[in-house]
Amino acid sequence: MLIGYIRVSKSDVSQLLDLQKDALLRAGVDAKYIYQDHASGRKNDRPGLNACLKALQPGNTLVVWKLDRLSRDMKHLVNLIDDMSHKKVGFKVLSGAEIDTTRGMTIIGSKSYSKQK
């Protein structure tokens, strides 16, 4: 089953939320399995994200529009991906790097590192 997560910060316009939701729907995520937050990506404790992570079961795939919608904190992002991997949960980013390969994880690490500088 596909489970989606979308996030906008308070400074983002509502159109970005609609854009993310439409992309997830086109990717096959059922609307009732899309979780959302209106919060900064630097804040790790988000109600929508927490509910989304709790709903994930082995064999599910978490789908996000862009990687920075999940987290802007490199350590948090790597921990989330590692936790999902251990739970046998897939992870798909619709726009950006593929992360299901070592090369993809290296790209993510370098992008996140450069954003933190």
UniProtKB/TrEMBL annotation:
CDD domains registered for this protein in UniProt? SR_ResInv
Example GO molecular function? DNA strand exchange activity
Would the keyword Isomerase turn up in this protein's UniProt record?
no
Cite the Resolvase/invertase-type recombinase catalytic domain residue spans from the record.
1-117
Known Pfam families for this protein? Resolvase
Q: Which SUPFAM superfamilies match?
A: Resolvase-like
The superkingdom listed in its UniProt entry is: Bacteria
Any idea which UniProt keywords this protein has? DNA recombination, DNA-binding
Instruction: Give the PANTHER family listed for this entry.
Output: DNA-INVERTASE FROM LAMBDOID PROPHAGE (PTHR30461), SERINE RECOMBINASE PINE-RELATED (PTHR30461:SF2)
Q: What is this protein called?
A: Site-specific recombinase, Pin-like DNA invertase
Species whose genome carries this gene: Legionella drozanskii LLAP-1
Q: What is the lineage of its organism?
A: Bacteria, Pseudomonadati, Pseudomonadota, Gammaproteobacteria, Legionellales
